[in-house]
Design a protein that fits this description.
Elements: H1 7-18, H2 22-35, H3 42-53, H4 60-73, H5 78-90, H6 96-109, H7 114-126, H8 130-143, H9 148-160, H10 164-178, H11 183-190
């Protein structure tokens, strides 16, 4: 039921975006959107929404409406729910409930993705649901046990719940896992 964007647009858009030719990519996206009116395809909305979300604050409302339209066409699109959740989370507390719903859908449709569980956990923690946040953070860490960022997030949640000794052990694991990462990332974990 979903139609792919014309191949010429797809190839051009990918090439433009990867090579830093954003203005050309924008022109191509707009042409593709016009050619598919009144109902752009799921794939076009998904790609354009992500493109817009990467353009910064000036385009975030347009990105929001475009990603919402894509997710409405395909609610089981886990990556889209995750992308929309990330965008909503970046917009502040007034979007927290919708971000939580997006992350919930992302983990439901993509249960083996550590990032989905991690961001859901962080959003849950911000909303005050630490027990559920801990479960998803621990699950994310279990999916990717060598990722220092996941260990560190879990440690921070453990600290927040008063499980200090376990948090210290997990934080030490984060530092150990950061070895071999780029210096900028490893430095963040060394501050523990």
């Amino acid at each position: 039921p979903f139609h792919r964007p014309p191949h010429a647009h797809s190839r051009t858009l990918c090439a433009c975006t990867r090579s830093g030719r954003e203005a050309e990519a924008e022109t191509q996206y707009q042409a593709a959107m016009r050619s598919q009116q009144p109902k752009p395809s799921f794939e076009l909305l998904a790609n354009y929404g992500l493109f817009l979300s990467e353009r910064g604050a000036a385009r975030e409302q347009e990105a929001l409406s475009t990603l919402r339209a894509a997710v409405a066409l395909n609610p089981a699109w886990a990556q889209g729910q995750y992308n929309l959740g990330n965008l909503l989370s970046s917009l502040g507390a007034e979007h927290e409930a919708e971000a939580l719903a997006c992350y919930r859908a992302a983990v439901q449709h993509g249960p083996r993705e550590a990032d989905y569980h991690n961001n859901y956990a962080l959003c849950l923690a911000n909303a005050g649901d630490l027990p559920t946040a801990l479960k998803h953070s621990q699950y994310a860490m279990g999916l990717s046990p060598r990722r220092a960022d996941l260990c560190l997030n879990f440690a921070e949640l453990l600290f927040a719940t008063g499980e200090t000794s376990t948090a210290i052990q997990v934080a030490a694991r984060a530092v150990e896992n950061s070895k071999g990462q780029p210096a900028s990332e490893a430095g963040a974990y060394a501050l523990l």
